[in-house]
Specification:
Number of helices: 4
Structural class: mainly alpha
Shape: elongated
Number of strands: 0
Order of helices and strands: HHHH
């Protein structure tokens, strides 16, 4: 009689990562201010989505990328000073 196979979390995580990659989803690491994280969490709760990643995907889908300019990026470096 064989022993029942126990779940291995690292194998489960590897399967999930492989499935996501097959779907074209990749992971990134983002460094955000705590206020930006709080804003993501508020949107996550309001929208009823599962993750901050879902919120970011929604925001990217809604924004007109051509409307974002280098001047917008400059405001980030000014606020970090």
């Amino acid at each position: 009689m064989s022993m029942p196979r126990t779940r291995n979390r690292s194998e489960d995580a590897a399967r999930i990562r492989a499935r996501r990659r097959a779907e074209g989803l990749l992971s990134i690491e983002a460094v955000l201010h705590r206020d930006e994280i709080a804003a993501l969490d508020q949107m996550k709760a309001r929208l009823g989505v599962a993750s901050r990643s879902d919120v970011l995907r929604i925001v990217l889908a809604k924004v007109d990328q051509d409307a974002i300019t280098p001047a917008d990026a400059a405001t980030l470096s000014q606020s970090a000073a």
